[in-house]
Amino acid sequence: MSVPLWPYVTPGIPDELFERLPGIPLSKREVRLMIISQLRLEKTSVFWDIGAGTGTIPVETGLLCPEGKIIALERDEEVANLIRRNCDRFGVPHVEVVEGSAPDCLQTLPYRPDRVCVEGGRPIEQILQKAWTYLRPNGRIVATASNLKDLYAISQTFSELHVRHVEVVQPAVNRLESRGSHQAFAAISPMFILSGEKLD
């Protein structure tokens, strides 16, 4: 029997273990761990990852929630196939990859979610508003922003939607990297992580 590529129950798969495509975003391991912690998943969680990119978060959450339902939404066919390949690499067949563009296709997604992560997309405000209408009561929503414009848009939308117990985190992470014969700390691109709850 072959050893799984990631045989641990602890999340935090090294970035280099994922298959990648040029120009397709990947949530860096340390940021990914913070996003997952804000989701506060349960074993049976129904989770929508909107704008799943390389598929790192669907893979990690699929490993954490073997009894859950994980939906990875991606608009580009080639990128959706990349997510499928990464799910195969790590043995998470219960992750369902859906090709479509948010917010229009959200109504077609299977299962009403109790966890939603929005990792980008335009227009971000409309995606959040539409996803909120499907989010179950007592569910959690997480959104990421890589610039101040998106941070402001997400903050404003959270306020309009009356998202409760809002948290905003902007991690500053450095990794030790080898550069020739020397080692130096390199900063990971900063990311804002916003999260909150739907109480009604």
Explain what this protein looks like in three dimensions.
- The protein has helices spanning 29-39, 56-64, 77-90, 124-134, 148-161; strands spanning 46-50, 69-74, 95-99, 115-118, 140-145, 164-169, 174-179, 182-187, 192-197.
- 38% of the residues are buried.
- It is 30% helix and 25% strand.
- It is built from five helices and nine strands.
- It starts with 28 loop residues before the first helix and ends with a strand.
- Helix 2 packs parallel to helix 3 (77-90) and helix 4 (124-134) packs parallel to helix 5 (148-161).
- It has 200 residues and is an alpha/beta fold.
- The strands form two sheets. It has a seven-stranded mixed sheet, with helices on both faces.
- Please trace the helix and strand order, writing H or E for each element: HEHEHEEHEHEEEE
Q: What ranges have pLDDT less than 50 throughout 5 or more consecutive residues?
A: none
Content of β-strand: 25-35%
Class derived from helix and strand content: alpha/beta
CA-based gyration radius:
17 Å
Average pLDDT level: 92
- Overall 3D form: globular
The largest β sheet comes out as:
7 strands, mixed
Number of strands: 9
* End-to-end gap: 48 Å
Number of helices: 5
Give the fraction of residues assigned to helices.
Answer: 25-40%
Task: Classify the oligomer.
Answer: single chain
Biggest β-sheet: strands ordered side by side in the sheet: 3-2-1-4-5-9-6
